[in-house]
Design brief:
Layout (H helix, E strand, L loop, with lengths): L6 H20 L6 H8 L20 H16 L4 H13 L7 H13 L14 H4 L2 H6 L5 H12 L6 H18 L4 H14 L17 H14 L3 H9 L5 H16 L6 H6 L2 H20 L7 E2 L5 E2 L10
Antiparallel strand pairs: 1-2
Helix pairs in contact: 1-9, 1-12, 1-13, 1-15, 3-4, 3-15, 4-5, 8-9, 9-10, 9-13, 11-12, 11-13, 12-13
C-alpha cells in the first residue's frame, strides 16, 4: 500500500476495483471451486464467458446498478428515494443481462404502487443493495455516519429491507471511506469485528467459505477472509472469484474495498486493458462528480415512502458502526 495516495486516487481505485471484480467474477459465477479448477485452473484473467456469455471486459448488474445509483445521486445532489427508484426502474427497462429476484420484485413494486420502500422481510438479506452502494460512500464520504447510514437505507430499501443487509452494507461503506482516508488494515479489521460483535452470524474467521450464495452474510465472510488474508489487490480478487458461487458480487464488493485500500496503481495492467474502456470512463467521471458533490456539501437523503404513506427510517442505530 502506498500511503501517499490521495483520497481521490483511492476512490477511483474503489470504482475501478468494483467493475474489475465484477467482470472477473462473472466468468466463475455459479461454478463450484472444483468446476473452476477443471475449466480454468486458477482463474485470474478477464475473459468474459460464464453463464451470461459476456464479452471480455463487460460487467453485470453490480456495476450497472452502481452507475445508475451514482447518476441519480449526482442529478439530485443527494440520495432521494424517488430518483433512486426511478433510476433502477429505467435500468431494468434497458433489459440488463442479469437482475436479481429481490431487485426485480422491489422495482416492480415501485412501478405498480409508487412506493420507494419495500416492507421489512427476513428473506431480503441478499447482497444486492451492497453491491451497488459505492456511490453512497463517495458522495457521503465527508458527511456524518448518521447521514451515510440514512442515505444507504434510502437506496437499499427500494429493494432490500433487512437489518443484516443494512448492517453489512454500512460496514462495507465505512471500510471504503476509512481506506480512502489512508487508514491501515487494522482499522478495517476493527470495523469488521464490530459487525461480528453486533451480529455474530457474520463471524468469518473459523472456516473458509466457498461457493457463497447471494446471502449478504456469506458474501462478506468471503470478502473479509480474502481482504484480511491476502496482501495485494490482485491476490484478494483472485481469491474470491475462485471460490465460485456469487462470484461477480463477491468480486465487486472485494474490489471496491481493496481498490480503495491499495489504490488504482495496484490494479494489474492486464486487467485494466481487458476492460471495456467506456465502463472505466464512466466509473472515472462518476467518481470525480461524486467527490465534488461531497466537497461542496451533499444534501441529506429523503426518506423512503412505504405503502402506508409513512416514512421508513428505523432498524439499526448508525452510531454502532462508527
Amino acid at each position: 500500500m502506498v500511503s501517499s495516495l490521495s483520497s481521490r486516487e483511492r476512490a477511483l481505485g474503489a470504482y475501478f476495483g468494483l467493475a474489475i471484480g465484477d467482470a472477473l467474477g462473472a466468468t466463475t459465477e455459479f461454478l463450484t471451486p472444483r468446476e473452476i479448477v477443471q475449466q480454468y485452473g486458477r482463474h485470474q484473467s478477464i475473459i468474459g464467458g460464464g453463464w451470461l456469455r459476456l464479452k471480455a471486459g463487460e460487467v453485470t448488474d453490480d456495476t450497472q446498478m452502481s452507475l445508475a445509483l451514482g447518476d441519480a445521486i449526482i442529478q439530485e445532489r443527494g440520495v432521494k428515494a424517488g430518483a433512486v427508484a426511478s433510476a433502477f426502474s429505467d435500468w431494468m427497462r434497458s433489459k440488463p443481462v442479469d437482475i436479481g429476484h429481490t431487485v426485480r420484485r422491489g422495482i416492480v413494486r415501485y412501478r405498480s404502487s409508487g412506493t420507494t420502500a419495500v416492507p421489512f422481510s427476513e428473506h431480503d438479506a441478499g447482497n444486492g443493495s451492497c453491491m451497488r452502494a459505492l456511490p453512497v460512500a463517495l458522495a457521503y464520504s465527508r458527511a456524518s455516519t448518521q447521514q451515510l447510514c440514512d442515505a444507504n437505507r434510502t437506496q437499499s430499501h427500494v429493494t432490500h429491507h433487512n437489518p443484516h443487509a443494512d448492517a453489512g452494507t454500512e460496514t462495507v461503506l465505512q471500510m471504503v471511506i476509512a481506506a480512502m482516508n489512508g487508514d491501515k488494515i487494522e482499522a478495517l479489521q476493527r470495523q469488521a469485528a464490530q459487525l461480528v460483535a453486533d451480529y455474530p452470524v457474520f463471524e468469518f474467521g473459523r472456516k473458509r467459505v466457498e461457493n457463497p450464495s447471494g446471502w449478504i452474510v456469506q458474501t462478506l465472510q468471503v470478502v473479509f477472509q480474502a481482504l484480511f488474508g491476502e496482501e495485494s489487490f490482485e491476490a484478494v480478487l483472485v481469491d474470491v472469484v475462485n471460490r465460485g458461487g456469487d462470484a461477480d458480487t463477491t468480486g465487486a464488493i472485494a474490489g471496491m474495498v481493496a481498490g480503495a485500500f491499495y489504490g488504482p496503481q495496484a490494479i494489474p495492467e492486464r486487467w485494466l486493458e481487458a476492460m471495456n474502456p467506456k465502463i472505466l470512463s464512466r466509473c472515472q467521471s462518476q467518481t470525480e462528480a461524486l467527490l465534488d458533490l461531497a466537497e461542496a456539501g451533499v444534501e441529506g437523503p429523503s426518506p423512503a415512502l412505504g405503502l402506508d404513506g409513512g416514512t421508513d427510517h428505523q432498524l439499526i442505530r448508525p452510531d454502532r458502526y462508527r
